[in-house]
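Entry 14. Structure prediction run on the chain below.
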Amino acid sequence: MNADEVQNVTDYFDGIITATNPDINAIAPLQHPSGIRPTAVADWDTDYVNLVNKVQRHTMCKPETCLKKVKKSGPEKCRFDFPQKLLAVSTLCATDGKWGYTPKRNDPRVNRHNRGILQAWRANVDVSAITDKQAVINYVAKYASKGEPRSATYAEIFRTILDAGASGSDKARKSIQKLLTKSISERDISAQECMHLLMGHDLYRSSRSFVNITLKNDEWVPLTSVKTDDDSPEGQGKTILEKYKLRIPEMEGLSLFEVASKYSWSRQNWRKRAANKEAVVRVFP
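Output returned:
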């Protein structure tokens, strides 16, 4: 490319990407900008300043996040190359035949971003200029083939929690709570389960139906996004006790357990199940 073409491309990228801090000396706002909905923003310029300084600055480099050793015995370096050099003007240059765009910068720790995307997303973003086709192919291939790390065992999770430490008399209770939270938030997914989810297949099939009966005062209410058999609106449904009160005269002498196992509720009516298809009833508590 000639000088004019380079300048035109640079100007184009400058209109999309920036690494400039609109107010380096801005005072931290009382409310975190991520907690403000776009519809509640009163001043978009002030909002932009607060977002850049709160979510777009790479302020701390830590071994557990970005600090990596250049070699096994070498010094630690931020893998995102922060802090970065200040630039008065943006540059577009070719190195070893590959073009690269670097936006102008007045803050060594501001991440590249697009103002519109940042204020809509309201959290950290990273925007890069596409200047090389092969780099895009490599990027897509890398993330498409990237394997997930193995989930930690209960012993490993619990050891990490204990090392972090909870002080005082609540140490045991809080540690167990954290263990339960950690154990249900992450788990390994098998290749078979992944394919079932992608193809929309049921994860399991059963020759029997299951019916839950709760005897507590705070009755269970069906909460589901699947259309219920009684055509109720999404997320609503009658409890088994409410349905039992609506049984037909020939069912008057049947107990709640018998009704749940031998009859099914369909289209606002009880229908008898086939003799060999009685439901498995689970009673709580």
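The CA atoms of residues 92 and 100 lie 6 Å apart.
Filed with the rest of this week's runs.
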